[in-house]
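This entry is listed as follows:

___
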Amino acid sequence: MALSIAAVVAVILVVITAQQISNAVRTNEGHNSVIGSPYIGDWQEANNSANFIKILPNGSASCQIVNGSTHYTVTAGQATFDKQTKRLAIKFFFVGPSWHVDEAPHQTADGVVMKLDGQTFLKLRTYSSPSGSGSPGVSI
């Protein structure tokens, strides 16, 4: 019995690892792809400065999102954009927030903004070359 449980756990870990590797090697040609350059940068929600998204040129990302009693902090995650559903996601393995992109990043009188799930995010910084981020992990 213990051997069969160990085998099931091993299979699950192999599947999770394979999916994570598959996600890491996707390109912009895929329907779920590494994030495009307009999204790269530091973003802060206009009405809640506690909500912050950071997307680096290499696709790594982090965020801190507070929504009611739900608190997401993701470091060393991966940013992806699903072209079919217009969903932006920042995940560490399979954990992390995702948003519907109501308005893609665009220039306004206030600077570059994007609208995610009805919330306006202002671009605070743009990155021109890949850089690292903090230690990986997620806290909810």
